[in-house]
């Protein structure tokens, strides 16, 4: 058990470090989302659905300072969920967190609808556009009327110079963090070019088609952007 916790701690440390190199404003992003949720949800108790909850960063950022919030997190990765479970125990959030390996389809059919939801750094890993649309639609169906939803994803068109310019900025984050230029170029070839990116306009169209409204981009850093919206 001790070895397992040590392993998860090391995984979490690497994940945390790399994420914050890739997205230097990562902490600020979660603070912004928390402020937005607080305004939208008020002082009442609230249930939040976290898509891609493995890693547990949403839980770390929002759990301790919002005792009236409960969280249901879904993630298909068993290893990432181990990191999240480790953080839940570490923060003493066991009574307010439920973690499910899988997708929104694996949520209990009897579960009440949620007050808010987030999908952070997930959409660009889904290759098929119709699957992206299916995910967004399933999230919308799990939310109460008027509930806020936050989407954060890498975005752009692989064939356009605008993305290449932002990619150069992203590469500089890693070089400034001590990585060799050749290593960063390999990261681009092996990982970034394989991401299933969509232009901002198409992402907003998918959100609207899924039943979300008042869609607004509120965040952008390097390769990534974030949108706020609400269910109808």
UniProtKB/TrEMBL annotation:
<dbReference type="Pfam" id="PF08242">
    <property type="entry name" value="Methyltransf_12"/>
</dbReference>
<keyword id="KW-0808">Transferase</keyword>
<feature type="domain" description="Methyltransferase type 12">
    <location>
        <begin position="51"/>
        <end position="147"/>
    </location>
</feature>
<dbReference type="GO" id="GO:0008168">
    <property type="term" value="F:methyltransferase activity"/>
</dbReference>
<dbReference type="InterPro" id="IPR029063">
    <property type="entry name" value="SAM-dependent_MTases_sf"/>
</dbReference>
<keyword id="KW-0489">Methyltransferase</keyword>
<dbReference type="GO" id="GO:0032259">
    <property type="term" value="P:methylation"/>
</dbReference>
<protein>
    <submittedName>
        <fullName>Class I SAM-dependent methyltransferase</fullName>
    </submittedName>
</protein>
<dbReference type="InterPro" id="IPR013217">
    <property type="entry name" value="Methyltransf_12"/>
</dbReference>
């Amino acid at each position: 058990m001790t070895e397992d916790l040590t392993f998860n701690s090391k995984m979490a440390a690497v994940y945390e470090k790399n994420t914050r190199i890739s997205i230097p404003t990562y902490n600020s992003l979660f603070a912004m989302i928390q402020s937005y949720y607080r305004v939208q949800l008020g002082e009442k108790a609230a249930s939040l659905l976290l898509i891609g909850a493995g890693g547990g960063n949403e839980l770390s950022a929002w759990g301790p300072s919002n005792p009236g919030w409960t969280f249901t997190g879904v993630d298909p990765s068993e290893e990432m969920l181990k990191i999240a479970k480790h953080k839940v125990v570490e923060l003493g959030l066991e009574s307010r967190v439920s973690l499910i390996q899988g997708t929104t389809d694996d949520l209990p059919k009897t579960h009440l609808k949620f007050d808010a939801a987030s999908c952070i750094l997930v959409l660009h890993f889904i290759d098929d556009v119709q699957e992206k649309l299916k995910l967004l639609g399933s999230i919308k169906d799990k939310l109460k009327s008027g509930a806020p939803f936050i989407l954060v994803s890498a975005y752009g068109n692989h064939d356009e110079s605008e993305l290449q310019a932002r990619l150069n900025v992203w590469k500089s984050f890693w070089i400034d963090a001590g990585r060799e230029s050749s290593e960063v170029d390999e990261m681009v070839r092996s990982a970034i070019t394989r991401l299933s990116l969509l232009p901002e306009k198409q992402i907003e169209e998918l959100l609207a088609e899924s039943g979300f409204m008042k869609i607004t981009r509120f965040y952008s850093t390097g390769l990534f952007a974030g949108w706020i919206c609400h269910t109808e």
